[in-house]
Amino acid sequence: YRPGETVDFSDSFAIQLNYDLYNLEHTPDSVLTLDTAFGRIARMVYHGSPDQKPSDRKAAEPHANVVVPNVVHYVWFGKKKFQLHNLISIMSVQQQLKASIMFHTDQEMESRYWAEAKLIDELTVVERVAPNATLGETVEDTILQILRENGGIYLDTDVIVVKPFETLMKYDVTMGRSPRGLSFSTLFARKKAYFVQKLQKMRRAMSEGYSWDELALDAAVDRPDLVHVEENSLSRPHLSEWKDPSLLFIENDSSWSENYAVKLFYDSYAQDHNQYDIVNLRTTFGQIARAVYYSSSRLIKDGSQPRLYPREDYVVPNIVHYVWFSCHDFRFHHLLSLLGVHRYVRPEHIYIHSDCAPSGRNWDEAKEKIGPVLEVVPAEQPEEIFGNPIHNIPHRSDVTRMEVLMQHGGIYLDWDVFALKSFDPLRRYDYVMGNEIAGLNNGVILSKPNAEFLQIWYDNYRHFDDGKWNFHSVMEPWRLAYEHPNLIHMELTSLSRPDWTDWWDMKRVWNEDHHEDWSEAYAIHFIYSYHDQEHNPDDIKRMRGTFGEMARWVYYGQKEPIED
Hints:
The chain is an alpha/beta fold and 564 residues long.
């Protein structure tokens, strides 16, 4: 492999290259001018002559500006489970590329992580018929047709984008390497690119047993001016890793961060990970997953620090805070939330922090039943935090609740939370939140004034992005809880959902033929927008199911149906 050195192999039957030891990255074109013994061997075998010669093939050149549309295409055919790594792939596109995302599928998707993916504004689901295998059609045929018609970037659903693609989008077509040729896992193409059309034409003559990767490499060797080839940076950092792609799930190597993208080969080598176990997963995949899902590749500590213990006395004031921004109807479930707090938490004060005081029949009933304990406190909507603009009212509410709790301490509740029993056992902890399936639920928070965990969380809003829906309010406190387990007490099931396995199946709460056990819950967070129907004191009397039972418990003080 040393330039200028000659090794006589003319009398040898075979040559052992030990190629993997040297992590070399050669192509058919690169060996044409390679002044090494390996270059002579490679030219003899591949090109038919050991003689060194300049390549007469011109390499693809970038345009001055981007020519590939900033649109990412995924294809998903057949019934299979949409897993965390699939969500992370889409999230990485959203974070690094700011691209439109077209998800081509023949399926009605259902899963916890798909529900989270659908919250990404850039994602559009496109109905597409699966390729007909009986006619010899393949997924690659679909990929090429999509790119020929629309242009853009195709990604496998286990490809993670690591950094922006702008440099590669200046070529008409870009592909990465694979062990057998050029990989279809990440493919860039401008609309009607000639190289894509060439692949489609060559495919018609492709013999049985010949792979798409080999076909693409042959096309690139024939016309290197039509395609830019990235040797390593679109799949694995080192060519030697192709020998064992499972290393991503065994070793802990940070060299992936220099790639444009990383191909996981997840289905072949990994288990079904979730957002909890990646927190302290000591592998390269763990780094990548945390970098996307939690915006930090650092290991989130595994609880080896001492946990937060309760104190002998109450440290959380028995006052309850709500936030009510903008003028809107005060509905029956808002009344139920207040009555549940008044009946079971028995706070000294219930403060409504508002820029438009509630009104109407339900509000009048709340004032009548609760009395002077209930008080509206004027509050302005924050428009920025640490210089970062806040446009969404829910995000303004997130910031306000944190600032109120830092100043006064107490219990914060969302308006679709029902308190079901006294919170006193939790008031002995400095800071308390409950789990939800995507992180920690900020719809119920107990905090002493200036709790250290709350200050750390609030300080992280220096990096606030109003475009990320639940990242700062739900996912970020989850990450911080694992870094500071001695500063927070987490209630796994009693402050959000009573051990219900599927957070996203909200219909069960309103199903009158179904009953969930909530007997151990301090509170339930309904996320009422999933139901959004109006109720009243009369119809909950005989309403069957979980919601009817809890509504009666809050309003009438009994679970059983009430007959007139």
